[in-house]
Please model this.
Amino acid sequence: MIVVQAVALDDARARTWWDEQQAELRTRYGGEEDAEADFASTMDPRDVIVSLLASDNAGEPVGTGMIRWAPEAYGVGAGAAEVKRLYVRPEHRGEGYSRVIMGALERAAFRAGATRIVLETGTEQPEALGLYHAIGYDRRPNFGPYAHDPRSVCLVKDLPTRVLVLNGTMGAGKTEIASAVFDVLAGAGARVAAIDVDWLCAASPAPATDRFNEGLAFANLAAVAPVYRARGIGLVVVARPIEDPAGRDRFAAAFAHPDAGPAQVAVVRLEASEAVRQERLRARESAEFYETFARARTGELAASIVQADVDDAVVANDGRDRMDVALEVLEAFDWWPLPSLDSQGWM
Model:
């Protein structure tokens, strides 16, 4: 069994393997130093997504890897994460450690909202080149300090945008919980945005064939999705009820990217009792709007959402703290951005 755990950036075991890696590279490249051999001493720790240590069945560390937000000077685009110091000791090569460590690094970047992963290797590392090509990395023009090194090989993998839809009827608390989820992710350093879709389709008059302006909502989402992506935002939290069984696919298409494909979509339905919903609606809406529309619509919409049956999970939002609900939503879908540093088995 391979155990991969998160460790502190200054973990002595990981640093020992980093030094071993650099010594091996100097041998392979005729004594030439890595262009960023001392990157750890100058790097801002806040740019680190995670540093990992891999151990064997006996608990003996055998490999390492880390991933950080790529420096702006590299010119690889906002939201890019860079793999550094992937290394497995020679006696354990060929056992799948490098692939497992890379999978864990990719998972960390995906959780943190990266839109792409970049890395640098070299012509004298054929094993590394073979691994990276096998797991979906493509060559790109050399970047940053490697731009003019003929033996350097820079690679990239684009990641799909992740969209978390907070589904639910009127008064279920979608906007409030979307805001709480955003606060948790942003506070953890993730690249995240939140959108209340109701405001993207608040237009009058609505077409007779689309009385709730769904077409306008998705046209606007498709228009703003590239803007968020260009800003390096890989996680998007959306508040919007889904009455159409094709709703999930519409979100995936709206946030699709030419190189990364359709968005990865998770849908959580928030549920609150009829009495709680009615009380919330009375408190927030005008008396006229409540009596003429919202009072009846909350029950009608709740039935339509259940019939659409697009939810991956249902979370209660009736008399609970907003942050407790947000954490339950995140933990249901592997959306927690970063592993705990005291984790004994992060994989």
